From TrEMBL:
Classification lineage: Bacteria, Pseudomonadati, Pseudomonadota, Gammaproteobacteria, Alteromonadales
SUPFAM superfamilies in alphabetical order: NAD(P)-binding Rossmann-fold domains (SSF51735)
Keywords: Oxidoreductase
One cellular component (GO) term of this entry: membrane
Gene3D superfamilies, per the entry: NAD(P)-binding Rossmann-like Domain
Name the UniProt record assigns to this protein: Short-chain dehydrogenase
Record PROSITE patterns: ADH_SHORT
Database matches in InterPro entries: NAD(P)-bd_dom_sf, Sc_DH/Rdtase_CS, SDR_fam
One Gene Ontology MF term: oxidoreductase activity
Length: 236
């Protein structure tokens, strides 16, 4: 059985991935929420690990006993929006960047050397990385950077395959807070299956649902000025 470590495993996509993989893999389910992690204590093949991905020493101490991994899935993240771009909220911006981007560097520092040759690194980004969207100065920037980080790791790593995941809207406790329509949203269970299948095929870009993400990718080819008009319309 493969050893798989998943961050952000206490809710949403991370929880879905743990539940999807635990039937045929040994899973390290990682997160900050002790109460949520306690739900895994009697789940076969799951080892819960409590640590904060924004604290490199916490990551190091809690994963010290892990000798090797077949798949490292860096999924932990947060989403907050900047409602007034003119009065820019730098505290919110720092908070989102730290969770969604800097934590990736901390996890790679500590955990990447545990991935076996022939293993896989998976970074969960977002389809928000494809285009500049209203109120997404913090979230979108962090996810665009996460995508770039994954792609550069894919260029430089010789013995480890790298995948970046670009989900569309997924029905999670985090997205329940959204105050705007979420077209073509998929369930956590479906999202986990999309990701698992993409990892099994060692796809470089795992994006879903394709009827949504392909539209996003198509909009990428628009001149920025034209997309800006569309994006401003979305914000109204």
């Amino acid at each position: 059985m493969k050893n798989i470590l998943i961050t952000g495993a206490t809710s949403g996509i991370g929880e879905g991935l743990v539940n999807t993989y635990c039937s045929d893999a040994l899973v390290f389910a990682c997160g900050r929420n002790a109460a949520a992690l306690a739900n895994y204590e009697n789940t076969a093949n799951v080892t819960p690990l409590q640590f904060d991905v924004t604290d490199i020493e916490d990551i190091r101490s809690k994963t010290r006993d892990i000798e090797s991994l077949d798949v490292l899935i860096l999924n932990a993240g947060n989403c907050e929006y900047i409602d007034d771009a003119l009065n820019f909220d730098s505290v919110l911006f720092e908070r989102v960047i730290k969770v969604n981007l800097l934590s990736l560097g901390y996890c790679l520092d500590v955990l990447l050397n545990k991935v076996k040759p022939g293993g896989q690194l998976v970074i969960v980004s977002s389809s928000a990385a494809f285009l500049p969207l209203p109120r997404a100065q913090a979230y979108g920037a962090s996810k665009a950077a996460a995508t770039y980080l994954a792609q550069t790791m894919a260029v430089d790593l010789q013995e480890i395959d790298v995948s970046v995941v670009h989900p569309g809207f997924v029905k999670t406790p985090l997205t329940e807070k959204n105050d705007f329509p979420m077209p073509m949203a998929v369930s956590v269970e479906d999202a986990a299956q999309y990701i698992k299948k993409g990892i099994a095929k060692r796809k470089k870009d795992i994006h879903f649902p394709k009827r949504f993400t392909l539209i996003m990718k198509l909009f990428q080819v628009l001149p920025f000025g034209l997309w800006g008009i569309v994006a401003k319309g979305l914000s109204r």
